[in-house]
Amino acid sequence: MNVRLELEALAARAVGTVSRTARRGGGTTLPGKLLWKVDPGAVDALSARLPAGVALISATNGKTTTTAMAARILGGEHRLAWNRAGANLLSGVASALVAARGAELGLFEVDEGALPEAIRRTKPRVVSLANLFRDQLDRYGELELVAERWRAAARDLPEHALLVVNADDPLVADLADGRERALRFGLDDPRHARPVLQHAADSKYCVRCGTPYVYAAAYVGHLGDYRCPACDHARPQLDVAARDIELRALQGSRFRLASHHGDIRIELSLPGLYNVYNATAAASLALALGASPTAIRRGLEEFSAAFGRFERIRSGSKTVVVLLIKNPAAANEALRTLETGVPPVLMIALNDAIADGRDVSWIWDVDFEPLLPHVGRVIASGERAAELGLRLVYGGLTEERLEVVPSLEDALDRGLELTEAGTDLVVLPTYTAMLALRGVLTKRGLVPAYWDAGKS
Amino acid sequence: MKIRVGHLYPDYLNIYADRGNIAVLRRRAELRGHELLVEPIGLGDPVSPGAHDLLYIGGGQDREQEQIAPDLAAKGPELEAAVRQGAALLAVCGGYQLLGRGYRSRTGSLMPGAGLFAHETVAGATRMIGDVLLECELEPGMRRPLAGFENHAGRTLLDPGAEPLGRVIHGFGNDGESGFEGCRIGRAVGTYLHGPLLPRNPWLADWLLAQSLAHASGSEPPMLEPLPDELEARAFRVAADRARVRGRGRGR
Prior knowledge:
CATH architecture of the largest domain in chain A: 3-Layer(aba) Sandwich
CATH architecture of chain B: 3-Layer(aba) Sandwich
Number of domains of chain B: 1
Strand order of the largest sheet of chain B: 2-1-3-4-12-11
Strand content of chain A: 15-25%
Radius of gyration of chain B: 17 Å
CATH topology of chain B: Rossmann fold
Number of domains of chain A: 2
Order of helices and strands of chain B: EHEEHHEHEEEEEEEEHH
Number of strands of chain B: 12
Strand content of chain B: 25-35%
Radius of gyration of chain A: 22 Å
Largest sheet of chain B: 6 strands, mixed
Structural class of chain A: alpha/beta
CATH class of chain B: Alpha Beta
Distance between the termini of chain B: 42 Å
Oligomer: heterodimer
CATH class of the largest domain in chain A: Alpha Beta
Largest interface: A-B, 32 and 36 residues
CATH superfamily of chain B: Class I glutamine amidotransferase (GATase) domain
Structural class of chain B: alpha/beta
Number of helices of chain B: 6
Shape of chain A: globular
Number of strands of chain A: 17
Shape of chain B: globular
C-alpha cells in the first residue's frame, strides 16, 4: 500500500467535498487538479490498481455520450471509475480515479489533445477513437496537428492493447491499419447517406495520395463508405456495423447491430444518425471489453442522454428540448434531426468562451439554410447573438422572423412565451451557453444540478 | 451591373468560413441592384486578366495549402496582371500568405508563392491566435476600424515600402512586432483576419464592391447607397470589444 498516494487521494477527495458543499461548481475537476499538481504520477499508480484495467475514449464529437453509453452497458458488471461530468483532461481523469474508491474498471473520455499523455499514463487495455472533425481551431491549431498526435499515440500503443476505430473516418481508420488487435465499426445503410458531402466535411482527401475520395455513402460530415479512385485506399471491412437504421426524428432511432456475436436489435431514445454512431462506438468498446450482447442491448436501450447533449425539460405546459451544438459537424446533425419536424420557434445560443471556441467563424460552416425557410421564428442569443443573427439573415432568414436577445434567460423566457402550450421549444446552445441555460433551469427547480445529473 | 467574381480553389481553401464573405458580397450587391456571378477557379484552370472584377482566395489547412501552392504560384503573373489592370482582390489567411513571394518553413525551405504582394512569410514556433482590431486608411483621410480573428503560425514580413492593410490596435497582426496587419496593392487587399471578415465589417465589403464595379464599368468607383447595417454594427461592437479585452495590446 502506497501511503503517500493514499494521503494524496484522501486530501483530494476532501477538496471535492468542500467544493461541492460551497456550491461553487460540481467539484468535478478541483480535486484532480490538486492531485495532478502535487503528483502527476498518481494517475499512473491509481490506474495500475484497477483490476479490470482502463478504457479510453476520444473523438471530436460524441465522446461524452459514447462514454456514458459504455458506462451504462458496463456498469452492471464492473464498478467504474468514470469521468461522467465530461472533465476530460488528465486532471479530470485524476479526479475520477480519486473519487471512485474500490473501482474495477476505468472508463475515461479524454480530450483529443490529451490522448497521447492519457495513453502513456493509464496504459489502457482498450482505446476507442471515433472521429476527427474541425472543432475549435483557436484552441488546437488545425485538424492535421491533432491527427499527427494521434498517429504517434497509436504507434506507441502496446501490441496487446485493443484499438477500436471508426472505419468510416479515413484519418481514424488509418490509425489501425495493419494492426492485429483492432476492431473496426461503422454504419452500413446507404438509405441514410447524404446526396453530397457537406460543406463542413473535413477529411475529404485520401490519406495515402491526396486525391479526393469518392463516397458510396456519406453519413455524417466526411464519415462514410469512401474509396480513393487513384490508389484504391478504401474503408476497411466492418467488424461491427449498424444496419437497417430507422430514424424517428426527435423520438429516437432503431437499428440492427451486426457483429461476430450475431445481430442485436437496438431501440435508442436519442435522435439522429450521430447517436447511432455513438451507440455503435459504445457497443464496440463494450464488446472489446467482453460485454454480452444482452448487456449491450439493455444498456443502450436504458440510456436516456448524457448531460446536456439532448434533454427534454418540462417547463409548465411546455417542453424545452436542448440539443448541444459544439462545432459545425455537431450542429449540422442537430439541425438534421429537426428537418422532418421543423419547430415553429427555435432558440440558438452562441457563446465564445474557450470551451465554445473563441473563434466564432465556424457558424458559417453550419448548414442552417435548409431549415430557415420553414422555421416560424428564431431567437438568437448568447454573447455573440448579433454575429449569429447576421449569419442567419445572410442564410435567408427574413429579419422580421429574427429576434436578437443576448441574455440567455431573457431569450429562454421569450422563447417560452412564443411557444404554444403542449409543444416544444427547441434550443440549440453552444457548450457554455448550455451550462448557463441549465443553471437557469436549475434555479427554477426544473432540472437537477449537473454534478447530480445522470447518477442512478 | 454584373460583377464577375473568380473564387480561387473553393474546394481546398474554405477553412475559415470563407463562404460567409461571398454571401455578404452577394447580398450587398443585390440590395444595390447588382448581380454577383461567382466562378470557381480550380487547379489547372487558367486566370485571364480582365475576366474577373473581383478575385477571392481564402484559407485552408496546411495540407490543402500545400496541394494548391504550386498551381497558385504558376498563376502569379496572370493574377498580377489582373490586379494591375484594376481588378479588386480579397485574400484571407492562407491565401494571403501564398500571394506573397513564399512561405519559408522552419527548416529554411521555401514554398514559392504567387508574388503579387511584396512580402515573405516565415514559419514561427507558436501560433498567433486571437481577436484583432485594426485601423485602416484605404482612402486618404478615411480612417475606419476592422475587427476580426487571427490564427496563424507564419510571420509575414512586408518589404520596405509595401503598404499594409492597417495598423494594429489590438492583436498580433502580420508578425506580432511591426504593428501592421495585411497588405494592400491597388485594389487588392490581403489579411489574416477571418471570422469571417466581411459580415461585421460591411464598409470593407462595400469598398470591394465599389472597386469591382469600377473595374466592370471602366469608370471611377461609384458611391453605393448606404444600408441600415444595425445588426452589423452590433456584431462589430462585440468583436471590437473582444479585441480590446482579449487581444494583445500593442500600445501604439
